[in-house]
Amino acid sequence: xxxxxxxxxxxxxxxxxxxxxxxxxxxxxxxxxxxxxxxxxxxxxxxxxxxxxxxxxxxxxxxxxxxxxxxxxxxxxxxxxxxxxxxxxxxxxxxxxxxxxxxxxxxxxxxxxxxxxxxxxxxxxxxxxxxxxxxxxxxxxxxxxxxxxxxxxxxxxxxxxxxxxxxxxxxxxxxxx
Length: 177
Fold this sequence. Notes:
This protein has one helix at 154-159; strands at residues 23-25, 55-58, 66-73, 82-91, 96-97, 110-111, 133-142, 165-175. It is mostly beta strands.
């Protein structure tokens, strides 16, 4: 049995003071638009291109040491949503992630397995006939790098943002089949 009191990843801290008006955008994904086939999965009967989007950001706080990027579907019929993408330790001097480069970033950027148990990005794939699902891309500017392995869960990554977030920005798009 694991002793949670000895787990180095479970330290609760007070939140950092949010700073500035950071923005997140994508030239090919307008806010509240429908995702194109480029950003749809190519597994389990879906015939999308499964390409990670080019995401850009501006106005990060000056004290930013790293970024975390997530893509989450809160509408997945799982009881806990579905994590499509989690990338962390994005260098503070970056202001975008290039299109189609998930699992190829280098520069110390780590990506978790998504909830389909695949490395890096997995595109949208809501159940056929379900209502449109929201796909929320969120960028976090942190006041430090994260000393975590890429084998943790998205929940543990999220927990480790405690006390480190200087600013956030989100972009939401939809998809249904």
